[in-house]
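User: I'm writing a tutorial on reading structure tokens. Could you give me a worked example: one chain, its sequence, then its tokens, then a sentence or two explaining what the tokens reveal?
Assistant: Sure. Here is the example chain.
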Amino acid sequence: MSALQEIVDYLVTRVDAVSPARRRPHLAGLLLRLSVNYSERMEEYVLKSISILQMQFTKDTSSSPAGTTTLTNASTKIGQSVGKELDREPLPWGSQVSIGDLFIEALYNLKFIDLSYAKTRNSCHVVSAAPRWYELGVIPDRGDSFPLAATTIKKPKDINKMFQNINGVNRPVIKGSLEGDYLDPYSPWVQAINKLQQTEWKINTPVFEAMVANKDLFVSQEPVLDNDAKELKRRSKMVEWAFISEKARKLSELDKFYQYMDADYRSRLYYCESFMNFQGSDLARGLFKFYHSKPMTEGGLQWLAIHTASVFNMSYGLDEIPDWCIADYKTHLESEGLDNISVDKMTLEDRIEWTNQYMEEIVDAGMNLQFSNDAEKKVSFLAACVEWYEFDCAFKDNRIHMTSLPIPIDGSNNGWQHLGAISKDEQTGDLVGLIPGEIQKDFYVQTAKEMINICKDERLRSILAAMPMKSIRKGISKRGSMTRAYSAGSKKIAENMFFDCKSEDYHTEYDITQDDCTKLSKLLIKAIDKVCPGPLSTMRYLQDLAMYQLGTHVKVDSDGYEANGEYRELSQKRDELMKKNFKTDEDLIELNDTVIKLKEFTTNLKHGKGVDRIVWGTPSGFNVVYEKWIMQDRKARGRIKGYGNKTGQVTHVALVPTRMPDRRGFVCGMSPNYIHSMDASHMALVVSSWDGCFAAVHDSFSTHASDVDSLLSLTKQVFIRMYDCDNYFEVIRNFITDAEDDVEQPTLGNLDIKEIENSDYFFA
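And here are its predicted structure tokens:
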């Protein structure tokens, strides 16, 4: 019996045993029992559940490492997905988690997953992949296994309404939005989403067949016995492989296909198909080719060479730099405090030369469909090798080689690019490719060096002195410097930093503790402030605008005078009296009097607009509606037979929004949301003006090799048009508020945005 069938049989038996006549029947079992043909559709429901769990297991964050997720999150998502199929009104949250718990119960009792209770700051039940999880990758060959829910062989129609029909299901174009109906078809962001989901795709069949034949290269069958985190990641990877390979197999049988897209509230675009899409891992992305081919050109060959070198990404030590390199990397590395350089940090000319140096091996790998263990992106590298082999064959036969391989150009620290352009900060521009330079600067190394310079703590100095710069960059500086552009605070940076150190075993090798990371995160923020003064002032300006829009409120008494500290004192007194376990009559009288006095105060707007949402327009024609509400706990009882106590009862705690604005959350989130809306606008404006094939991964744009030069030129032109003005702070203010002198603007730098035209590393 297959693993899938075990789960189906368990659930059908459980549901069959539920009697609607019982006084208190099992809620999830009853909902399924009352559904038409539930037993016939149970396999479909199980596959949905497995897919949802795998999506959660695939994510790798400090709060939820790969191979884990919280029970409440998993049960809610499973319940929402299965609940939609039961032909009933939208189910309340308690019913959703009950359904989810039933599927979790089946997987738990059949030992596909483990359950535990994490006693942390946010204590919760945790779901993790058990040793049997990988068996779910061995799914019988059925037509509906791992269904392609958002892929079609018919060209999607142009979107002009808020909802579009995706394989029989009406889905909102903007995730989670139920507002509005009509969409402007001439808006650049609508044109962009139409062009992207009307792009014709095919699977790189030779590469896919080679990938299947070399499964052991991508997923390990051997358990990791000495590291729980790595073992969970391994189990998760095995099932991710099953999802991707199964979907890719189906797609390989099609002549061509299309994939639907949607947008988030900032207009960032996403492929709707899970796992098997161009925004997925290298395992998926490396299998995609454009359906239409174009003749290879001399310029296209250069970009193919750059791409080939970058996806392999060999590293050279200080004393190993090849003689064929044009640039002086030794001097560069010594000045940066590094002992090696990777090919993707070399000049474009040297990346081309790297490919030329290894051309014989590359063509041979393409001919024999041979993966390289040393390649950073194995699938993409083999796809490039196959492309070179096919070009070589065409050249020898005196034929024009037709290429359909997507070649990407990626923004260099894209968040900082937008912040640097807004503030006209030359210092930042030099680090992130807004200013021409011979060798690409490493933003994360610069912040790491500054962090070392300002560090006064003896213990931290000894840790940093023991670590190579490469390790400091990877474990300490990189993620914090990246997320700081999106307003990450010291607490979040510290959590991510410790997680990254654990992932690389730096916490044992260099004795790095959580407390060390807390201190290092604060140092890193100070270092970034020095390295990027302009962007940081821009972030603060955006936060100030948010505070103005939200407004400053004060409490006033019955006479209309500001309460000053009186209201606060009364509130404190009320709270103290409420906390008393045993209240005397005097306490009760005093509490009642205090509550009455508090009700006499009213709230007045003192300064600003006093809104509860912030709305701004973007260059792509998208109107961002930004909301942030105070969250409160909501509880629901669940039951998972066989887990915990005899009854199997669990308590689910979810955070649900109130109708009170979260002022702190608003302010903290303003900068990242605005910058995300700008990078989304940049891509939308590029796509809407582009006539060729295009694939999108936010700040990574892909097209045919022969068209990369044109796409790069357009990418630069659009970015320049977006920011080429005397004072972009005025533009921001006019988009967000009609405030004039109420919010002080930062000082602008002297960056000439038009210098991007001559930069090799703006997008590369």
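What the tokens reveal: The radius of gyration is 28 Å. Confidence is low (pLDDT under 50) at residues 139-144.
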